[in-house]
């Protein structure tokens, strides 16, 4: 329980640091892909603008994305801008009642001056990828594994995801939310685990003391 309290505390501190980083990034000017290549600092959450052509034939659907309690998919596509291939998150679409029936998604031919944020995806070792290297599209993926996506598409991708933030396409829901659970909630969980740990310690302490008393009395009889 004490370990869980410490874990929640560390998560809260990390979230607070991320919130501060987002606030700092929001105050910066909007970058282009060319500028990002020469940027020396942390690119996470930086605002970015992109123009380029889209690969409409190869669409990835990120599974298990929830919006207002409704299951759906994150729609991912590839934008080519001046020879750079970038994975773009176009937003959320609702899933069908029958899970095997995928939503119909149509991407435009190009994007022009599209605004977004840079996201550095991380692999979750507890998630098992179910997509295969076949010719079936759109392809449902379980997480954003850049290496796997490069294998599927046979292209070299920039090492980040561009999440579009402008809500100018009624086909998608675009609600950029980098921090789902605020730091304060993690701190509250840390206090709860700490309280339970202290309570368990005192229960153990008094139970052990009573047991030792009982043993001592039996020895003196």
TrEMBL record:
<dbReference type="InterPro" id="IPR002994">
    <property type="entry name" value="Surf1/Shy1"/>
</dbReference>
<keyword id="KW-1003">Cell membrane</keyword>
<protein>
    <recommendedName>
        <fullName>SURF1-like protein</fullName>
    </recommendedName>
</protein>
<keyword id="KW-1133">Transmembrane helix</keyword>
<keyword id="KW-0812">Transmembrane</keyword>
<dbReference type="GO" id="GO:0005886">
    <property type="term" value="C:plasma membrane"/>
</dbReference>
<comment type="similarity">
    <text>Belongs to the SURF1 family.</text>
</comment>
<dbReference type="Pfam" id="PF02104">
    <property type="entry name" value="SURF1"/>
</dbReference>
<feature type="transmembrane region" description="Helical">
    <location>
        <begin position="187"/>
        <end position="207"/>
    </location>
</feature>
<keyword id="KW-0472">Membrane</keyword>
């Amino acid at each position: 329980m004490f370990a869980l309290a410490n874990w929640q505390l560390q998560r809260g501190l990390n979230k607070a640091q991320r919130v501060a980083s987002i606030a700092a990034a929001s105050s910066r000017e909007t970058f282009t892909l060319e500028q990002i290549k020469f940027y020396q600092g942390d690119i996470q959450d930086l605002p970015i603008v992109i123009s380029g052509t889209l690969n409409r034939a190869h669409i990835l659907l990120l599974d298990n994305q929830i919006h207002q309690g409704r299951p759906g998919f994150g729609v991912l596509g590839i934008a080519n801008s001046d020879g750079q291939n970038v994975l773009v998150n176009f937003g959320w679409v609702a899933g069908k009642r029958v899970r095997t029936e995928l939503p119909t998604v149509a991407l435009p031919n190009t994007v022009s001056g599209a605004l977004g944020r840079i996201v550095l995806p991380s692999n979750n070792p507890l998630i098992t990828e179910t997509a295969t290297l076949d010719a079936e599209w759109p392809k449902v993926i379980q997480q954003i594994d850049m290496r796997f996506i490069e294998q599927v598409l046979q292209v070299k991708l920039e090492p980040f995801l561009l999440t579009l933030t402008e809500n100018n396409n009624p086909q998608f829901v675009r609600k950029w939310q980098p921090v789902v659970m605020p730091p304060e909630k993690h701190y509250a969980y840390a206090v709860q685990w700490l309280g339970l740990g202290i309570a368990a310690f005192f229960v153990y302490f008094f139970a052990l003391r009573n047991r030792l008393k009982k043993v001592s009395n039996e020895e003196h009889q």
